[in-house]
Structures are given as C-alpha cells and as structure tokens.
Design brief:
This protein is α/β, with parallel strands linked by helices and 363 residues long. It has helices at 17-25, 41-51, 59-65, 80-89, 104-116, 131-141, 179-182, 185-195, 277-283, 294-306, 315-334, 348-351; strands at 6-11, 31-37, 55-56, 70-73, 93-96, 121-123, 148-158, 198-206, 217-224, 229-235, 237-249, 252-258, 267-271, 338-339. A hairpin with a 2-residue loop joins strand 11 and strand 12.
Length: 363
C-alpha cells in the first residue's frame, strides 16, 4: 500500500483545534498542515502563527485559494453540517468533530451529499482507536470472552455555570443537546463499537441545576441485537469526574476508567472462575503506552484514504450513534420506549433532538 501526503487544513481554531494540529504534526510526514480558518481574524492569525501556516476567514476562501486533501472541522456544532456539505460538494474529504450534525435530518443530507461526491466524511470518535478498545473488539470477535451480557457506560463530568456563558452552549439550536449530545457521546459510541447495534432504549433527561435549554443529566436503559443490556449515564453535575465503561462477558469482566483519554494502564480484566486464561490473552504480546486520541484516529483515516476507502468513523457508523441520541431524547420526552429505526423522516425528533419540546422549556 503506497502512502500519499495529505495537505490538511483546520477550520475553527478553538481549543480542540490544537489536538488536530498536533495529530497532523505527529503523522510522520503523512499529512501536513497548510492552512487555518476562523471567522475571528485575531484567533485565526494567532493559531496560524503557532503552526506557521496562512490564515483564512472562511472555508470558501480556503477552498478557492489552497489545494487541500483533508479538512479538520473544529467549529461549534451549528456549523458542522453546512461546512461539511461545502467540503463534500468541493470534493474534499472532511474529518468532523462530534456531533457530526445537529439532527438525523441533517446527517441524512450529508449521507446523500457523500453519495454524490468523490470525497468522504468521517466523525471524530477518537476513543474507538485506543489499543485497549481494539484489543477488546478483537478478543470479542474471536469468541475469547464469550457472549456479552451486561454493560455500564458512565460519563460523569462537571461543568459549572461559567462554562455555559459561551453563547452557543446549552442550546438546542446551536449545540443540539446537552451532555447526551456533546459529552457522553464519546463513551457510548465506544460502547456501540464493542457491542454492536442497539435495539431499544428507554430514556430519561432532566435539567437539574444549570440554566440551559438542554438537559444537564440523562440516563438510558439499552438492549442490543446481541441480547446484551446496558445502562448509560451522562452528567455535567458530577464533581468527581470520571468516564467508566464496564463489560460483563460470560468469561470475564473488562473495565475501563479514565477521564478524557485512556491508555492500556486504564483497563482491567477480571476472569470468571475457570477462565483465568482470559487475563493472559489480554496481555499477550505486551501492553501499549499509546493513548486514545486524535492521532490514533487520524492514522486510521490516512490508512483508509491510502487504500481508496471511506475513512472511519463513516457516516453510517455515526448515524447509529446519533440515532441513539435522538431515541434517548424521544423516549425521555414522550415517556415511551423507542426502537431502532422508529424515528423516521417525519418524526419531530428527526428534525430536532428536542423534538416535541423539552418538558421544562416554558419554565
């Protein structure tokens, strides 16, 4: 497989943009940063000066002036879909920070655009790409862990009132949702990458303490096509912050506890009686010190592009995760269980994540 060199640009130079620039710089020469874009000229110039690239004020200007192979889209969520659409229509592959769109309807528009384009769109769900997650999926696929039975997925973080002073945060119109959409989505996307398609969700979403349009806590009970069941918690009200995934298989419990990124040191394996060999298989070949993060996902993206394939995480993969978000909100706001595929194009929860409206909207 021959390797190309990919001319990359960062669009949106806020905090997460640095992680993308560092991933490009750490690609071993496979990619190079050639431009930065931000509607705030001072911020664009400051970021561009650090990375020694030209600054532009719009994606349109960038695409007109530069030859770009890969756009890293790091703007607030409101702009993800329209800017990704502009990239696809220009034939430029785009790697988009989560969430990839504000609704299933927007996401389906992007899927249609990708089908018409020679380019691709991938969503940043970097926790899929840590070595521990890859090892877990590999052992599960090989049948070494037995059937998955029970799982828990906790994203218990803390965001104070000052966090929501940024105008686009905490609103349905610009962020698309609360911790379900913008925070816990990383953990339950990793959950789905291991356990596969979900079948049904019963959800709860509440606004406990923050003066926002969106929820600050959500929970869900989930069943999977495999028969496994899971509980999911997404919170921005938890002073002791943690991110926890636990998988109970027939032959072992596999656990991950971290905060915003993990290494192999953050995983533990507890074999069931009589299956002590599972722990040995987990460590066979040695453990890695590589972290989960943008560098790992970018490497996988570049590998796929070298092969002429759609890079991970594909829009089809992202849609499964986004459909779960919509289903959780639909269940929470209607009081009904929601099954996969139930939210069709005519559903208000396909057009907006708050659908018929959050129960606290008039308070």
């Amino acid at each position: 497989m021959s390797q190309r060199h990919y001319r990359s640009a960062v669009v949106g130079t806020g905090g997460i943009a640095t992680a993308h620039a560092q991933a490009v710089a750490g690609s071993g020469g496979r990619a190079g940063l050639v431009a930065a874009v931000d509607v705030d000229p001072a911020r664009a110039e400051s970021f561009a000066a650090v990375w020694q690239v030209p600054a532009y004020s719009s994606l349109t200007e960038l695409l007109r002036e530069e030859q770009v192979d890969l756009v890293h889209l790091c703007t607030p969520p409101l702009l993800h879909a329209p800017l990704a659409l502009e990239c696809l229509e220009a034939g430029v592959t785009v790697l988009v920070e989560k969430p990839p769109a504000l609704s299933l309807a927007e996401l389906d528009t992007l899927i249609e655009a990708e089908n018409r384009s020679a380019a691709h769109m991938a969503t940043v769900f970097q926790h899929r790409f840590g070595p521990g997650a890859a090892r877990l999926r590999r052992m599960m696929a090989a049948g070494e862990l037995g059937r998955p039975l029970v799982a828990t997925c906790l994203t218990q973080w803390y965001r104070g009132d000052a966090y929501f002073e940024v105008p686009w945060r905490g609103t349905w119109e610009s962020e698309g949702g609360g911790p379900t959409m913008g925070h816990g989505i990383h953990q339950f996307d990793l959950l789905f990458s291991v356990l596969g398609p979900w079948r049904e969700v019963s959800g709860l979403a509440v606004r406990q303490a923050r003066d926002t349009q969106t929820e600050d806590v959500s929970m869900a009970m989930v069943t999977f096509e495999s028969g496994a069941v899971a509980s999911v918690v997404n919170s921005l009200l938890s002073p002791r912050e943690t991110s926890v995934l636990r998988f109970d298989f027939e032959r072992a419990t596999v656990e991950l506890e971290h905060l915003y990124g993990y290494t192999d040191a953050d995983w533990t394996v507890t074999p069931a009686p009589g299956h002590e060999d599972v722990a040995k298989r987990w460590t066979a070949g040695g453990l890695s010190t590589d972290p989960s993060g943008h560098r790992g996902q970018l490497a996988a993206v570049l590998d796929a592009l070298d092969r002429g394939e759609a890079p991970p995480v594909t829009l089809a993969d992202a849609r499964r995760t986004m459909e779960f978000v919509a289903a959780l909100y639909a269940s929470a706001f209607t009081g009904e269980r929601v099954t996969s595929g139930q939210i069709g194009p005519g559903s208000p929860f396909a057009r907006r994540m708050d659908g018929t409206g959050a129960p606290w909207k008039d308070r």
